[in-house]
């Protein structure tokens, strides 16, 4: 048995891990790289394995950096089964179609090029997405599934986004059995909509994300108050508030908070525009799968309160509706992409970054090489669509609203395994963050943590 680490290795994107025994091969995730042009170009490289030889893909959740290359995998010969929850399946479908739409739009405009300017074709076409969706098989949380001789799995709630999963695998080759756990992306405890991550108590090997392995988040309630204070400050000076959001989870979490603020009279007469057709579709899927809600969200529903709707909320659909927001002042605009790598948020940044009364609130992780990361790091001048823009707007990072566990949460989750784990593999984090986290785990908890190289194969 062996694992090869092909993606999310010393970086936070492109999750892809290959597990092989003598009898079968499977992937955990098949995600797209996001961030710099160099990372983006990696999506067009050939797979370092034969897609036709893969029997299964186990999909932890529907973010692009975990599911984005599934249609490419199918296009190049994969004909196996994709395993996920039902919510992950539905969310992955709209994410993959949106990625295709962006690629085809860039192709038509001539922007779909490699870093050296060479044109490139979209990674896949609609027919590949249709074929991909036909390969999904969905299962519930907490039920052990013997998929075939020597391969049993169980999905547990990862608490990251709707339908996100931790995967437990019991693998047998001959008389030898090993248990491997893949954390996927773990969420923060105490989130508003979905349950906290499940604890897992035993494993031989653990592959765990480490996005925030070097830091602690601000208190959730303090973050909400900070968020509200920024909105109030903008309101006084009729400045706009831009919130770059991920369509899945970040949008719904922020809508949930706005709903509570409006109903408790903390905000009055506020206009909130969700300028993202993808976020609208994702919210509809959230409404469909209320079975994944935690107690607080369920209680709102039982009272007849839609957690994602409130007076002042407006959903824009057309490009013309989006363009009309350029003339508005004193409004809140939520738009993708969450790291400002594309989408409608770029046009809103062009219209607002030079205004000292405007505010930009980042509520999610910003990968190195993205415009979002540059703004968070304090850049004073940016170029968007060839236009140079001074950054006079107020830039904020509200870390307590992150969808990822912080160092304390990760350590707590790992403690559940006790001392029986043979090896912990750190993935899905910046290299320095993983190095700091590895030292912390080794010194404080006595756990053996290893940071794999890209393409490294580890025999179990």
Written overview of the protein:
This protein is an alpha/beta fold and 460 residues long. The chain contains 14 helices and 22 strands. The protein has two domains: 2-215 and 403-459, Ribonuclease Z/Hydroxyacylglutathione hydrolase-like (Metallo-beta-lactamase, Chain A, 4-Layer Sandwich); 220-401, Rossmann fold. The chain has helices at residues 37-42, 64-67, 70-75, 86-109, 126-133, 220-236, 250-263, 277-288, 295-302, 319-324, 345-352, 371-376, 407-415, 431-445; strands at residues 2-5, 17-20, 25-28, 56-58, 81-84, 136-138, 145-148, 151-157, 165-173, 176-182, 205-209, 241-244, 272-274, 313-315, 332-335, 359-362, 381-384, 387-390, 394-397, 423-427, 449-450, 456-459. A hairpin with a 7-residue loop joins strand 8 and strand 9. The protein is globular, with a radius of gyration of 22 Å. It starts with a strand and ends with a strand. The model has no long low-confidence stretch (mean pLDDT 94).
Describe the SSE topology.
Elements lengths: L1 E4 L11 E4 L4 E4 L8 H6 L13 E3 L5 H4 L2 H6 L5 E4 L1 H24 L16 H8 L2 E3 L6 E4 L2 E7 L7 E9 L2 E7 L22 E5 L10 H17 L4 E4 L5 H14 L8 E3 L2 H12 L6 H8 L10 E3 L3 H6 L7 E4 L9 H8 L6 E4 L8 H6 L4 E4 L2 E4 L3 E4 L9 H9 L7 E5 L3 H15 L3 E2 L5 E4 L1
Parallel strand pairs: 3-4, 4-5, 5-6, 10-11, 11-20, 12-15, 12-16, 13-14, 13-15, 16-19, 20-21
Antiparallel strand pairs: 1-2, 1-22, 2-3, 7-8, 8-9, 9-10, 17-18
Helix pairs in contact: 4-8
């Amino acid at each position: 048995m062996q694992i090869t680490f092909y993606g999310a290795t010393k970086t936070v994107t492109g999750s892809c891990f290959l597990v092989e025994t003598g009898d079968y091969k499977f992937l955990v995730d098949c995600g797209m790289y996001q961030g710099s042009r160099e990372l983006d170009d990696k999506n067009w490289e050939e797979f370092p394995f034969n897609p036709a030889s893969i029997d299964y893909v186990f999909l932890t959740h529907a973010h692009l950096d975990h599911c984005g290359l599934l249609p490419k995998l199918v296009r190049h010969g994969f004909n196996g089964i994709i395993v996920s929850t039902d919510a992950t399946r539905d969310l992955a479908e709209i994410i993959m179609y949106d990625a295709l739409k962006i690629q085809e739009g860039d192709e038509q405009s001539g922007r779909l090029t490699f870093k050296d300017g060479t044109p490139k074709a979209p990674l896949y076409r609609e027919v590949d997405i249709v074929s991909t969706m036909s390969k999904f098989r969905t299962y519930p949380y907490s039920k052990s599934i013997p998929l075939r001789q020597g391969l049993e799995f169980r999905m547990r709630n990862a608490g990251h986004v709707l339908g996100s999963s931790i995967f437990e695998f019991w693998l047998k080759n001959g008389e030898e059995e090993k248990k491997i756990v893949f954390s996927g992306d773990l969420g923060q405890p105490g989130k508003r909509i979905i349950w906290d991550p499940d604890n897992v108590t035993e494993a031989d090997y653990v592959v765990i994300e480490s996005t925030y392995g070097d830091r602690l988040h601000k208190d959730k309630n303090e973050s909400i108050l900070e968020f509200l204070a920024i909105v109030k400050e903008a309101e006084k000076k009729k400045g706009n508030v831009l919130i770059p959001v991920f369509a899945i989870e970040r949008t719904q979490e922020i809508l949930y908070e706005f709903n509570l603020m409006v109903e408790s009279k903390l905000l009055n007469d506020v206009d909130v525009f969700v300028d993202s057709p993808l976020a609208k579709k994702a919210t509809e899927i959230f409404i469909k799968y209320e079975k994944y809600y935690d107690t607080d969200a369920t209680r709102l529903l039982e009272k007849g309160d839609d957690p994602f709707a409130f007076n002042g909320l407006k959903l824009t659909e057309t490009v013309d509706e989006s363009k009309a927001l350029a003339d508005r002042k004193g409004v809140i605009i939520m738009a993708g992409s969450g790291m400002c790598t594309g989408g409608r948020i770029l046009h809103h940044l062009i219209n607002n970054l030079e205004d000292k009364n405007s505010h930009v609130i980042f509520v999610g992780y910003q990968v190195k090489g993205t415009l979002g990361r540059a703004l968070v790091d304090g850049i004073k001048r940016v170029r968007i669509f060839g236009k140079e823009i001074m950054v006079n707007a107020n830039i904020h990072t509200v870390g307590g609203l992150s969808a990822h566990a912080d160092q304390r949460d990760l350590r707590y989750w790992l403690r559940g395994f006790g001392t029986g784990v043979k090896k912990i593999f750190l993935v899905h984090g910046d290299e320095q963050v993983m190095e700091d986290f590895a030292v912390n785990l080794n010194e404080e908890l006595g756990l053996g943590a290893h940071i794999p190289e890209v393409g490294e194969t580890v025999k179990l």
